[in-house]
Amino acid sequence: SPAKRLSSRKVARNLHQSAALTMDTLQDPAPDPVECMEEDIADKVVFLEKRVSELEKDTAANGEQHSRLRQENLQLVHRANALEEQLKEQELRACEVALEEARRHRELVCKMERERSIEVESLQARLQQLDEENGELRSCTPCLKANIERLEEEKQKLLDEIEELSLRLSDEQENRRKLGDRLSHERHQFQRDKEATQELIEDLRKQLEHLQLFKLEAEQRRGRGHSVGLQEYNSRTRESELEQEVRRLKQDNRTLKEQNDELNGQIINLSIQGAKNLFSTSFSESLAAEISSVSRDELMDAIQKQEEINF
């Protein structure tokens, strides 16, 4: 500072004056050492002044640095206070969050405990129910075993019946095949007889037409003689014989048709009886009932239609 600078100069001046006085009082006949001492003192004074100046500069620099450090310290104090406030706020928020999390955790734990209690009660009830069902099943085990044995016996009986029915079915199919062959033979024979009868009827019809023409001619020549009367008599006799032959053939045709119908009826009855025998068990009663419900005429019509398709 300026005051310190003046005092240092004053000290240097006083030192210089005291040195000069000392030199005056102690004058020596040899002046060279004194001059040398004065020069040394002057050099020291100059050195001290320079040193004082440097110290003053250092002091000023230290003052500025101290002021800057104080300013920075003040800023750091303010910043530390702000950070402390911020830290307190964060601690407060963290405490609130921790309390909220603890509350939620307690609620979640309570909820899980309630659910676990309910689940445990449900499982206990289910376990009790299963124990009761297990007891019932154990008590029913002998009955079930007896039922299984009974069902096995019934199954074996049904298998035996199925085997027997299979054999009967084979027999019925063989009988039906034989009846079918017989019916086919009878049908062919009936067809041949029918064709022969038709041919014979056609011949008789032609002969009848011829006789009718002859009769007309005979009536026109009536009265011509005894020979004409004899021919007319013979014509009438032949006509009567032909009419009887036609009636006989028609009767034979009806007889053959009745025989054919009778054979068809036998086949139908055998088919129905075989179906009833084959499907007499409980699992085939519906089909047997359906066959039984069909009338004989309907079956006859169906068989005749099938025969017409086949032939």
From TrEMBL:
It comes from Neovison vison. Keywords: Coiled coil. Residues 38-273 form a coiled coil. It comes from the Eukaryota. The keyword Lipid biosynthesis does not apply. Residues 65-189 form the Rab11-FIP3/4 domain. This is RAB11 family-interacting protein 3 (Class II). The gene is E7EWJ1. Gene3D superfamilies: 1.20.5.2440. One of its GO terms (biological process) is endocytic recycling. InterPro entries: Rab11-FIP3/4_dom (IPR057316), Rab11-interacting_regulator (IPR051977).
